[in-house]
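[audit] Reproducing an earlier prediction to check determinism. Same input, same settings, fresh worker. If the tokens differ from the archived copy the diff job will pick it up downstream; this log only records the rerun itself.
[audit] input (215 residues):
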Amino acid sequence: MRNFFLVPLMTGVAIAGTIWGAKMSYRALLNRAPTQLSCADFLANRDGPDWVSLEQCEPADEGIGTESEELDELGESGAHKRRTTAVYIPLRAKGTNGGKTKAVLLAERQPFLSVANAEAPEAELVAFEAEMKRPLVGLVERRLDRSETNRDMIRGLGLHLADDFVVVDLDATPRPLWFAFGVLAAGLAGASWLVRWWRRREPPKTIPRAVLRSG
């Protein structure tokens, strides 16, 4: 009866740990430091490094998308107020325009969040422009890093996205190598347990047929 619950659990650990651990280990080994790229070079080849430091980027003209959460506080209309928790800023190389958006910057801190507020103080907007002139350091999230449901949500923000768009998660970094190896080790340990269980399991017992004998 114990194995009835343990076998599915260890199967999940083996599959998830091995796949995600290998992926995180691979990413951590190849991205020991952010790779400096111009925005133009990055947009021309988005299949390169995962941890990037992008220079000479600017917001495209397609506006921004936002994520928000509902607050307990009520507004003047009686509805709950909402607070912006993240913004999606379409990127383009400085001095270019036109075409579909190939990369979106995901930011969850100020002064980037201020661009979602039509009443933001001028000082915050000036700070946002200054941040956009600095290198944008973050982790590139491609098709396999986000569920198709989540990508559809981003497509629904009206940012004129290319089919193979990527998200640059600002300030995100690869998982530490020790953590990635730990997840991989857990997955391999789960797989090893399943192999040992399979070898130790009792073979099905064969019940001999009853033979009718005539007296």
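[audit] rerun output stored. Observation attached for the diff report: Residues 108 and 160 are 21 Å apart (CA to CA).
[audit] end
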